[in-house]
Amino acid sequence: MSTAASAATGAAIPKLLPKYFHQYVGNATVFQALKSYEHIAFVKYINSVYNLAPLTKWGLSIVPMVGVVTGSPSVEKIDFNTSVALANTGFIWTVYAMLIQPQNAGSRALALVNFCMGSVNGYNAYRRYQYDNRQQK
């Protein structure tokens, strides 16, 4: 176990984690190659794990949100099980994001995007459930 990495974070590094990854424990910088460009505000914002996680999650969540607004895909093409799984995942991670201490703009943005993902996919699951019930009658 790397004592320098564990001393820097104040936490023990899991033994199953390969030594190569010890350098990243407790390091909020995502891309070391961008470190010399962090004098640019946007690069510094993107290169932080606290801001990159919500931005990545928004990228994954935007497609279902656009689908709800535009009405596509049609309700026949929505997979009920996938929508329920994504809704549950969104709501579970919303709670987790609210437990992160200390709270900052990144953790709140992560909670917001997870809540949106849960809500949108929950709505899609509801639409598919209603459609399936109408088809059975």
From TrEMBL:
Localization of this protein: Mitochondrion inner membrane
Q: Which UniProt keywords apply?
A: Membrane, Mitochondrion, Mitochondrion inner membrane, Transmembrane, Transmembrane helix, Transport
Q: Which domain of life does the UniProt lineage start with?
A: Eukaryota
User: What cellular component GO annotations does this protein have?
Assistant: mitochondrial inner membrane
* Keyword Chloroplast belongs to the record: no
Q: Does the keyword Nucleotidyltransferase apply?
A: no
Entry's InterPro entries? MPC
Membrane association type: Multi-pass membrane protein
Q: Name the principal localization, coarsely classed.
A: mitochondrion
**One record GO biological process:** pyruvate import into mitochondria
**Could you say which protein family the record assigns here?**
Belongs to the mitochondrial pyruvate carrier (MPC) (TC 2.A.105) family.
- Its function? Mediates the uptake of pyruvate into mitochondria.
Q: What is this protein called?
A: Mitochondrial pyruvate carrier
